[in-house]
Amino acid sequence: MSKKGRVLVAMSGGIDSSVAAIMLHDQGYEVVGITMKTWDYASAGVGKKETGCCSLDSINDARSIAVRYGFPHYILDIRGEFGEHVIDNFVGEYMAGRTPNPCVMCNTHIKWEALLKRADMLNCEFIATGHYAKVREENGRHVISRGLDITKDQSYVLWGVSQECLSRTMFPISGFQKTVIKQMAREMDLHELANKSESYEICFVPDNDYRSFLRNKIEGLDERLDGGLFVDGNGKILGKHKGYPFYTIGQRKGLEIAVGSALYVTKILPESNTVVLGNIEDLQRQEMRVHGLNLVKYASLSEPMEALTKIRYKDPGTMSKITQDGDCMKVVFHSPVSAIAPGQSAVFYEGDDVIGGGFIDVINKN
After folding, report:
1. Does the 282-364 domain belong in CATH 3.40.50.300?
2. What CATH number has the domain spanning 6-207?
3. 3-state SS string over the chain?
4. Does the annotation count 203 as an active-site position?
5. Model-level pTM?
6. % of the chain at pLDDT higher than 70
7. Confidence category of residue 54, pLDDT binned at 50, 70, 90
8. Pick the catalytic residue: 53, 54, 103, 106?
């Protein structure tokens, strides 16, 4: 065994995880590659070409790198667990009128737990991924912080990873810009990966069309939702919609409603198949409550504290006062925030460090 240790690297077949594996190999770690099979369209009857980390091409790309550098590579089939924890949650959240976070669910309940279990089986001390985020030990806690490349930072989707998993996690590319990683890939003779365009789609939703995905998963969905109404804040009927799960808070495009001014989805009422529309001001909120809390930097918050709170992946964040209440967090923003969507993740930052996160639940206007 290498003096530096044995590390299990999650290899999706993409540029980031491939460079991460090669970096660790060149640094003297004993690398073991693993590619997780999370989903395939054929089994779901979707009939579209697989893309991203679930495709046969991606698996072959990961394996070819392992062969070239002489380290073992395994394929781990976790479609069952993925379906239970990620797919079922995804469908259930939309049917409950909320907006799900499948990447957070996958990282929290699937990838890290599966990696840690397989790492133990393969006698690996560490696990590594190609995420743009940092992890360090401080005051007995393992702290996630933003990666160097803020435009690619993925700390937002890692708030749910447990302390046990973080204690054995490495992020080899965290200290590099994406442009540097691409140049490193070219120098490693990975020209095809360096030039490949990145996909930002949900890995199990073909063409990013989640509405068709829901229809495929739930038989007779359109018939069940037929006759749903758009209403304004006073309950006045504005027209018919195509089904409440097909809309998200803050949505403007695709409403097919004309009233002479811009309308946005402000509330979703699944029990009555109703979608409430309003103007941009109706989307403003000052307070919210977050459940399913996982604290990262601190074991608990005994007092309220100031934090930058992000309510979606690309959100730059808004300063707020956060107060812990058991498994929940009360958040009071310093200024109103637009289009807070129940079901999405709220992540709290102290500087670049992740304090913790949870799922958005109750939203209050004032």
Report:
1. no
2. 3.40.50.620
3. CCCCCEEEEECCCCHHHHHHHHHHHHCCCEEEEEEEECCCHHHHCCCCCCCHHHCHHHHHHHHHHHHHHCCCEEEEECHHHHHHHHHHHHHHHHHCCCCCCHHHHHHHHHHHHHHHHHHHHCCCCEEECCCCEEEEEECCEEEEEECCCHHHCCHHHHCCCCHHHHCCEECCCCCCCHHHHHHHHHHCCCHHHHHCCCCCCCCCCHHHCHHHHHHHHCCCHHHHHCCCEEECCCCCEEEECCCHHHCCCCCCCCCCCCCCCCCEEEEEEHHHCEEEEECHHHHEEEEEEEEEEEECCCCCCCCCEEEEEECCCCCCCEEEEEEEECCEEEEEEEEEEECCCCCCEEEEEECCEEEEEEEEEEEECC
4. yes
5. 0.92
6. 93
7. low
8. 106
